[in-house]
Amino acid sequence: MAADDGFSAARLFSQGVSYTYDDVIFLPGFIDFPADAVDLSTRLSRRVPLSIPCVASPMDTVSEAAMAAAMASLGGVAVVHSNTEPRAQASIVRAAKSRRLPFVSSVPIFSPAPVSEYMRPAPRSASASFDFEQAAALLADEGLDYAPLVSEEGEVIDLITSKDVERIRSYPKLGKPSLGADGKFVVAASIGTREDDKRRLEQLIQAGANAIVIDSSQGNSTYQLDMIKYAKKTFPEVDLIGGNVVTIGQAQNLIAAGVDGLRVGMGSGSICTTQEVCAVGRGQATAVYKVASYAKDHNVPVIADGGISYSGHIVKALSLGASTVMMGSFLAGSHEAPGAYEYKDGHRVKKYRGMGSLEAMTKGSDARYLGDTLKLKVAQGVVGAVADKGSVLRFIPYTMQAVKQGFQDLGASSLQSAHDLLRAETLRLEVRTGAAQVEGGIHGLVSYEKKSF
Ligand SMILES: NC(=O)C1=CN([C@@H]2O[C@H](COP(=O)(O)OP(=O)(O)OC[C@H]3O[C@@H](n4cnc5c(N)ncnc54)[C@H](O)[C@@H]3O)[C@@H](O)[C@H]2O)C=CC1
Ligand SMILES: O=c1[nH]c(=O)c2[nH+]cn([C@@H]3O[C@H](COP(=O)(O)O)[C@@H](O)[C@H]3O)c2[nH]1
Ligand SMILES: [K+]
Binding positions for K(+) (predicted)? Predict the structure, then answer.
């Protein structure tokens, strides 16, 4: 492409305008490879590789054991939220890491009555270290309807049933899972910056957390810098992700303090009211581009956090320099998100709430606020609901296929290649006017059905 067509990102993002994903559009590049050849493997942080660039947000309506097992089995990762007691959070991490199956069943396995009173003895059990194919083969070979999943310590941790096998088989084939050096699923977890969080950190690391996210809307604080220094000194072997940041100045401080990854986004989340309440933040496209262009020189991967509604947003975030995207609302309506489905106006929905909503704050993150001299609580998020999306094991593979098609259109065969095109200014983009955005969407139809896959 002629270099004088469109704008380079460097030029576009230096004009004093805060842009978000929908404001910008990439100009197509040259295709000389099939979409299937696009390599989406990446890193969550310096030492945590992933095979897909997807991260589930540390929110109590998104990331618990079922999400963590499913995301790791897809090659991504979930960050287990901290809106609960440290012991409970650590046991969620343990539960996800104790298996190699892509799900945590909802069958209650704890009961006041001895199990033998209401269940037949299982003819065979499956080892908790079995992956899906091994467990499915056991059920098929032995003609079993179910088998308990038994840990190395002889504890029954779950059940696998022939129905689970049927369900998982109806989804796209599982790719390369995220496994740590211990051969177990990669699971991350979040902490805060209070004195108590040091104890939480210790318990999470004992539970085997592969990376720790320091969860704050404004990471550039003396509290976070102190926590980074403490964590890096006490547990140097575990990757530490700082944030959130949206400027180079914030990133500089956290990188200097030693973080292995950065989480970028302030006010961009679907449930966020931070920009409204505090007047601080940044358009997400600008934030990702600016922080990533600084962090790359320090070998610090960037997580583009918030504002992802569809695959095109993921392509934009990654092409603007992010190594992964972190998602809340995109994953919240899934089978794997915590909570039960409800019906609202005839739609099947799941609750999704901001961690800075009054409801979430009074549930657990309250400690943050109760300790403050100023005890007036002001929400920076809302409580809402999102539509049932089915299993992440189904819609994430389709979403990744769409992302590969986007990369192919750009002429980028991998994340590294997209980042190279960006830095070489071969990647060209423009701002879309309001009319161009309308044109880029579905328009002029009396009615339509949108079925993506
Ligand atoms: N990405 C985003 O745009 C936003 C995200 N959130 C989410 O909401 C949740 C809460 O975020 P925040 O309110 O930023 O939590 P936070 O824990 O970072 O801050 C809450 C308050 O506690 C203070 N604080 C923190 N550590 C302290 C210490 N050691 N001593 C004294 N004061 C201390 C902070 O300065 C702040 O006033 C998080 O899950 C966050 O991800 C909230 C707002 C915006
Ligand atoms: O202003 C905020 N108030 C909140 O209560 C809140 N809770 C979460 N978050 C942030 O939003 C991200 C998820 O955003 P999405 O739903 O758009 O994926 C998350 O990953 C967070 O960065 C919040 N931001
Ligand atoms: K918002």
Answer: 267, 269, 272
> What are the beta bridge partners of residue 243?
263
Task: Locate all alpha helices (DSSP H) within 76-128, ordered by sequence.
Answer: 86-97
Residue type at 176 in one-letter notation: K
Q: Say whether 330 sits in a helix, a strand or coil.
A: helix
pLDDT along the chain (453 residues), means of 10: 82 97 98 98 98 98 98 98 97 96 73 60 86 96 94 91 96 95 96 98 98 98 98 98 98 98 97 94 98 98 98 98 98 97 96 96 64 74 96 98 98 98 98 96 92 87
Query: Which amino acids are annotated catalytic?
Result: 272, 368
Q: Beta strands of 375-444 (E only): which ranges? A: 383-387, 429-431
Predicted TM-score of the model (pTM): 0.96
- 269 Cβ closer than 6 Å to some ligand 2 atom: yes
Name which of 351, 329, 328 is nearest 341 in CA terms.
351
Binding-site residue set for K(+)? 267, 269, 272
CA of residue 216 to ligand 1 center, whole Å: 4
Q: How far apart are CA 89 and CA 67, in angstroms?
A: 14
Interface ipTM > 0.95: yes
Total residue count of the chain as it appears in this document: 453
**Measured from the CA of 268, which atom of ligand 2 is nearest?**
17
Instruction: Locate the ligand 1 atom nearest the alpha carbon of residue 227 and give its number.
Output: 29
Q: Is the CB of 193 under 6 A from ligand 1?
A: yes
As given in the structure block, the two tokens for residue 58 are 């540390």
| Under 8 Å between Cβ of 418 and 412 | yes
305 lines ligand 2 (CB under 6 A): yes
